[in-house]
């Protein structure tokens, strides 16, 4: 099992319930493909470095999880088509 961190940037134009549902969907996708979530870190609303889809602010979430090497590809394929996710990045964390 490898350790991964998924950064998800969610639109600020949606309601709190819809944003929470989006993150729950992302977590469900991770678990569906065999990942075990170890931590979810919500950074809240932050200013974007550059305008994305005419938005200057968005909500940032960082999800750490343990999974096999095939899981991040499957997770990214599902997140890519989610309407409320404007950016995402999944990286493998180094072993210490």
What share of residues are in beta strands?
Answer: over 45%
Q: Tally the helices.
A: 2
Largest sheet: 4 strands, antiparallel
Q: Please state the overall shape, judged from the principal axes of the Cα atoms.
A: globular
- The tally of strands reads 4
Parts with pLDDT < 50 across at least 5 consecutive residues: none
User: Percentage of helical residues?
Assistant: 25-40%
Q: Output the helix-strand order.
A: EHEEHE
What would you report as the Rg, rounded to the nearest angstrom? 13 Å
Q: How are the strands ordered across the major sheet?
A: 2-3-1-4
Report the mean per-residue pLDDT as an integer.
92
Q: How far do the termini sit from each other?
A: 14 Å
Q: Classify the secondary structure makeup into a structural class.
A: alpha+beta
Describe the structure.
This protein has 96 residues and is α+β, with helices and mostly antiparallel strands. It is 27% helix and 50% strand. The chain has helices at residues 16-32, 71-79; strands at 2-11, 36-52, 55-67, 85-92. It has a 4-stranded antiparallel sheet, with helices on one face. It is globular, with a radius of gyration of 13 Å. The model has no long low-confidence stretch (mean pLDDT 92).
Outline of the structure:
The chain has helices at residues 16-32, 71-79, and strands spanning 2-11, 36-52, 55-67, 85-92. With 96 residues, it is an alpha+beta fold.
């Amino acid at each position: 099992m490898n350790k991964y961190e998924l950064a998800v940037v969610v639109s600020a134009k949606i309601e709190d319930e819809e944003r929470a549902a989006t993150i729950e969907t992302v977590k469900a996708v991770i678990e569906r493909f065999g990942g075990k979530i170890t931590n979810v870190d919500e950074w809240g609303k932050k200013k974007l470095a550059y305008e994305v889809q005419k938005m200057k602010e968005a909500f940032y979430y960082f999800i750490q999880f343990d999974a096999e090497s095939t899981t991040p590809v499957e997770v990214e394929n599902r997140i890519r088509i989610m309407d409320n996710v404007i950016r995402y990045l999944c990286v493998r964390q180094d072993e210490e």
